[in-house]
C-alpha cells in the first residue's frame, strides 16, 4: 500500500489522454519527449495517506521524493537523506542533503521531513500508510539538516518501509490539510523529478519536468495521464498509437499484448499476492472449519492459469514471491496446505456449524477483471454447497466499502508491496491495528498474541528472523483468515518510440522512460 499497491494492488492502475485523430506513433502529433500514459483507474489522491493504491502511487513517486529509496536490488539507498547512522537498535539519525527544493522553489527542511513522517500517526489524518510506520515512537529535528527517529522496538523493516511511506511534503501545507492533501482541490507539492500541472478525477493528470529537481533530470518533459477503465479499449489505444504506454496489463490478457506491432512488452516478477480474504468476525466464516472447507474447495492451479496466462503461478504462502526468495532463498517452509480436494472440503464443512452449506456475498470492483477469478471461485464453492453471490460495484464505491471493513465476508484482494521484507506485509494482514477503517486487515483476524509476535519480529535477523516469520505464517495457514491464490509477473507496454528499464523495485516508473534513439 501502492499500493502499493500496497502496494497493493491493492495491487495495485490509472490513466490516459487520447490524441484526437491519430493512428500510430508517427502520426500522433505528440512531441518526442511527451509521454501519453494509460492505466485502468484514476488516482484517488496524490498523497499516500489518502491514496495508497497503484494508480495514486504511480503518480506520487514521480512527484514526491522520499527520505530514502530502494535500489534495483531492493537495497535501501539515499534520497532526500544523503546519509544516516544507526547508533542503537531503536535509533536512526538522518542527515538531509543540501540543495533539494520543492517545485515552487521553497527549500526542503528538516521540519518538513520530520512532519511528513509523524503525520501518518496522527488520528486526524487517518493515513492509509499508518501501518507502515507503527514502529515509530518519536521523530525529532536535532539540527538544521538532521532528523532523529526513535522506534518503540527494533525493526529491521523500518528503512525499507520508509522508502515508500516517508514521502516529503511541506509541513505548512500538510498541517493545513490533514484530510484532503492530495485531492484535486488542494493538490500537493513535491521535490521529485516531476511536478503536477493538472489533476482532475474526470480528465486526468498532467506532469511536467521539475527543473528544480536535485537529482538527474528525467528525459521526459511532459506526461499526460488519464484513466481508461476497459482493458480492451486500453489495448487498442496502445496498438493504434493513441497511447504510448501503460503498466496496467491484466495478467490474463498478456498474450494479446505481447504480439502488438510497434510495442515492446516487458515482464518482471511482481511483489504481489492475490488472495481471498475471509471475514472471521461474524457469519459462517467465523468457523475455522468453514474457512478450511473454502480453502480445500478452490482449484488454485486452474485459477492461477486463468489469471496469469503463464506469467505467474500458485501462491502457497501468504507472501509475495520476491519476499519469499529474499527471506528463505530456495527453501521456503512447508506449512499446513489445502490442496484442491472436494472430499476434504466437504469433510471440513461437516465439522462446521454449517454442514449443509451457506451463502456468501462477494463485492468486487466492476472496473477490474476480478470477476473472472470470482466466477471460477463461485463454481468451485458450489461443488460443496457454498453459494457465492457476486456483487459488482463502481470502483470508488468498492474502495469505500472495502476500507470501511463492513459487509465484506469474502473478497478477492490483490495487493502489491514495495519492499523485500515480510515485515511490510504481515502487519497489514493480521495486526489488530490494521483491522479498522483504512487498514488492510480485511479479514478482521488478530489477537494480542499475534500482535506480540509481530512486534517481536523486529528483534531478529538472519535465520532467527526467518524462523519468527514462519511462526506467523504457520498461524495464518492453520487458521485460514486468508487463502493465498496466485502471484503474477508485472508488465509494461511501451510504443517503440520510447524505451525504459523496469524491475520489481522500480517505484518511479516515469523517470526510467526516455525517447528511443532516433525517435
- Cα end-to-end separation: 36 Å
Average the pLDDT over all residues and give the rounded result: 90
The shape, in one word, is globular
Low-confidence runs of at least 5 consecutive residues: 1-27
How many beta-strand segments? 20
CATH classification, class level of the largest domain: Alpha Beta
How would you describe this structure to a colleague?
By secondary structure, the chain is α+β, with helices and mostly antiparallel strands. It has 3 domains: 25-63 and 192-269 and 490-515, D-Maltodextrin-Binding Protein, domain 2 (3-Layer(aba) Sandwich), CATH 3.40.190.10; 68-176, Alpha-Beta Complex (Dipeptide-binding Protein, domain 1); 272-488, Dipeptide-binding Protein, domain 3 (Roll), CATH 3.10.105. Helices cover 27% and strands 23% of the residues. The strands form 5 sheets. Strands 1, 8, 9, 10, 11, 12, 13, 14, 17 and 18 form a 10-stranded mixed sheet that branches. Helix 11 links the parallel strand 15 and strand 16 (386-393). The two termini are 36 Å apart. Residues 1-27 have low confidence and may be disordered. Residues 1-25 form the signal peptide. InterPro entries: Peptide/Ni-bd, SBP_5, SBP_5_dom. Residues 75-431 form the Solute-binding protein family domain.
Amino acid at each position: 500500500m501502492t499500493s502499493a499497491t500496497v502496494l497493493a494492488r491493492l495491487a495495485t492502475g490509472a490513466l490516459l489522454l487520447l490524441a484526437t485523430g491519430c493512428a500510430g506513433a508517427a502520426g500522433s502529433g505528440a512531441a518526442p519527449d511527451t509521454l501519453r500514459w494509460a492505466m485502468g483507474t484514476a488516482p484517488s489522491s496524490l498523497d499516500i495517506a489518502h491514496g495508497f493504491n497503484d494508480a495514486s502511487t504511480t503518480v506520487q513517486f514521480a512527484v514526491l521524493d522520499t527520505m530514502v529509496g530502494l535500489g534495483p536490488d531492493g537495497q535501501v539507498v539515499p534520497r532526500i537523506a544523503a546519509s544516516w547512522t544507526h547508533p542503537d537498535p531503536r535509533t536512526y539519525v538522518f542527515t538531509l542533503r543540501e540543495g533539494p527544493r520543492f517545485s515552487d522553489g521553497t527549500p526542503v527542511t528538516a521540519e518538513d521531513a520530520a512532519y511528513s513522517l509523524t503525520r501518518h500517526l496522527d488520528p486526524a489524518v487517518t493515513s492509509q500508510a499508518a501501518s507502515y510506520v507503527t514502529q515509530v515512537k518519536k521523530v525529532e529535528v536535532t539540527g538544521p539538516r538532521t532528523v532523529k527517529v526513535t522506534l518503540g522496538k527494533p525493526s529491521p523493516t523500518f528503512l525499507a518501509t520508509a522508502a515508500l511511506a516517508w514521502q516529503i511534503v511541506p509541513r505548512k501545507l500538510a498541517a493545513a490539510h490533514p484530510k484532503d492533501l492530495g485531492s484535486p482541490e488542494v493538490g500537493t507539492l513535491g521535490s521529485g523529478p516531476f511536478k503536477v500541472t493538472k489533476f482532475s478525477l474526470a480528465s486526468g493528470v498532467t506532469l511536467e519536468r521539475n527543473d528544480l529537481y536535485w537529482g538527474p533530470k528525467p528525459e521526459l518533459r511532459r506526461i499526460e495521464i488519464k484513466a481508461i477503465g476497459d482493458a480492451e479499449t486500453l489495448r487498442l489505444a496502445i496498438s493504434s498509437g493513441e497511447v504510448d504506454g501503460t503498466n496496467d496489463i491484466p495478467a490474463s490478457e498478456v498474450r494479446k499484448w505481447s504480439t502488438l506491432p510497434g510495442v515492446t512488452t516487458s515482464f518482471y516478477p511482481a511483489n504481489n499476492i492475490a488472495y481471498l480474504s475471509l471475514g472471521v468476525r461474524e457469519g459462517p466464516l467465523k468457523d475455522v472449519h468453514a474457512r478450511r472447507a473454502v480453502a480445500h474447495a478452490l482449484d488454485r492451479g486452474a485459477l492461477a492459469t486463468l489469471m496469469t496466462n503463464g506469467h505467474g503461478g500458485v501462491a502457497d504462502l501468504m507472501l509475495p514471491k520476491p519476499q519469499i526468495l529474499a527471506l528463505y532463498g530456495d527453501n521456503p517452509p512447508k506449512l499446513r496446505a489445502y490442496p484442491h480436494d472436494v472430499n476434504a472440503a466437504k469433510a471440513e464443512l461437516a465439522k462446521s456449524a454449517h454442514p449443509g452449506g451457506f451463502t456468501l456475498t462477494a463485492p468486487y470492483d466492476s472496473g477490474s477483471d476480478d470477476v473472472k477469478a470470482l466466477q471460477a471461485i463461485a463454481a468451485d464453492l458450489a461443488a460443496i454447497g457454498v453459494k457465492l453471490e457476486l456483487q459488482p460495484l463502481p470502483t470508488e464505491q468498492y474502495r469505500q466499502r472495502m476500507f470501511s471493513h463492513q459487509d465484506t465476508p469474502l473478497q478477492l484482494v490483490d495487493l502489491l508491496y514495495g519492499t523485500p521484507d515480510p515485515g511490510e506485509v504481515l502487519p497489514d494482514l493480521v495486526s489488530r491495528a490494521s483491522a479498522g477503517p483504512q487498514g488492510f486487515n480485511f479479514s478482521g483476524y488478530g489477537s494480542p498474541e499475534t500482535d506480540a509476535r509481530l512486534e517481536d519480529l523486529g528483534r531478529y535477523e538472519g535465520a532467527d528472523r526467518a524462523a519468527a516469520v514462519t511462526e506467523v505464517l504457520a498461524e495464518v495457514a492453520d487458521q485460514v483468515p486468508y487463502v493465498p491464490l496466485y502471484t503474477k509477473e508485472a508488465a509494461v507496454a511501451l510504443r517503440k518510440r520510447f524505451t525504459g528499464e523496469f524491475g520489481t523495485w522500480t517505484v518511479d516508473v516515469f523517470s526510467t522512460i526516455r525517447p528511443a534513439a532516433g525517435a
